[in-house]
Design brief:
The chain has 414 residues and is an alpha+beta fold. The chain has one domain (22-69, 86-409): Porin (Beta Barrel). Helices cover 16% and strands 42% of the residues. It is built from four helices and 19 strands. It has helices spanning 17-43, 109-133, 298-307, 334-339; strands at residues 2-3, 6-7, 61-62, 90-91, 150-162, 166-181, 188-193, 214-219, 226-233, 239-246, 250-251, 255-266, 270-283, 286-297, 314-329, 343-355, 360-374, 378-389, 396-409. Strands 5-6-7-8-9-10-12-13-14-15-16-17-18-19 form a 14-stranded antiparallel beta barrel. It has a two-stranded antiparallel sheet with strand order 1-2. Strand 18 (378-389) and strand 19 form a beta hairpin. It is globular, with a radius of gyration of 25 Å.
Length: 414
Amino acid sequence: MKSRGKEYMVRMTVFNTNSILSVTTARRIIGATVIFFVLQCIGSKDAYIFAQIAEKEQGRVHDEKSDHPQTKPIEGLPSVESPTQPEPELIRETVEPVTVTVSWENTKGFGEKIDWIHENLYKTVQDQVERFDYWFKPPQGEQRIVELSRFRVGVFGEVEIKDDEGLDVKQVLDFDTDIELPNMKRRMKIILTTNDPTTLPGKDVIEQRDKSLRAAAVADQWMRDLSVAIGVRARWKPELFVNAVWSPTWKTENWLVYPQQKIYWENEIGLGEISTLVFDHWTNRWNTRFSTSIKWSEQDRDNDHQTERKDEGFRWSEVFIFGHAKELIDEIQLGRVASGEDVAHGWGIRLAAFGGFHLVDEYRAGIFYRRPLRKKWMYLLVEPEINWRNENNWNHEWKIKFGIEMLFWGKKER
């Protein structure tokens, strides 16, 4: 460029903005949603709060219950009544008789037949559990305790859409049981599960490091909100593991707070620790949930040393959920609560981020939808999602997760 006899040089640097724009967009979405979350919580102070009451009874799928108004009418002004809402249905059990008879021949249609199978399959397994538990006699002067077990079976799949390689399909079977043995040491239960307790909250079952079946004996009679599990992983060479979890529930005026401290050890991967804090807020049937987790493990530390990553075994996850729910599963696993997997009938928006102290690994944004397929024991999940990962140069990836979950829960009695 020339001007009045002088020459000027204009230098232009061109960047590949696709990846940068994707990351920036993800951060703006997360930032805007967090701002909306704060405004929504502040504005709800002068509204009527219909908080979901998390009852500690197992085997329960429930709605949120309405609460009393948190504000006091100003004198001289007419009081404002809360909007009338139908009384939420409280589902105490998922196993219920289909007809007055228990004959297969008397069932009509495909729906009643699978209900008959669902009920009788649960009854057969529960009878065997109780028969085993009756071997242990209660102390003199005390009656036998009856607590019905619960079983949760899920079949999930994930379709990843890749620009160059087409579709990548993954599938996994999720199996989780709590077998109650109340008369064995008075407070003991057996757990059979495919859930990996070393997984960072916010990751779904398809992403678990280990999907082996685990069997453990759980005792929680020593201290309130503290449980210890000792068991083995079912492999060609069984491996021992131990978990100690402290998980109380704190309730404020219109918040539920779930802190959790977990320490685990496995003879293959060594020692590890996960700290999680979940904030749960309800207004009518609208839910705002935020969870943060920090994990340290010897396995991640060794991997960091090998890859020259400077995080020294530390990992974190941040998950934000905003959605609407008509029914909730009374979930006792905090990892499911942090991921929104306790929603039985509803939908929501989920934003998540994962990384270490010196490196961000991934951003996620997606929506999820769950609804009952058959009564209150079979549920459908559909979850489209978009990911940005550091290892993929922050290029976006589309995924669609889907699955069916079946609950075999009986009503607790004492």
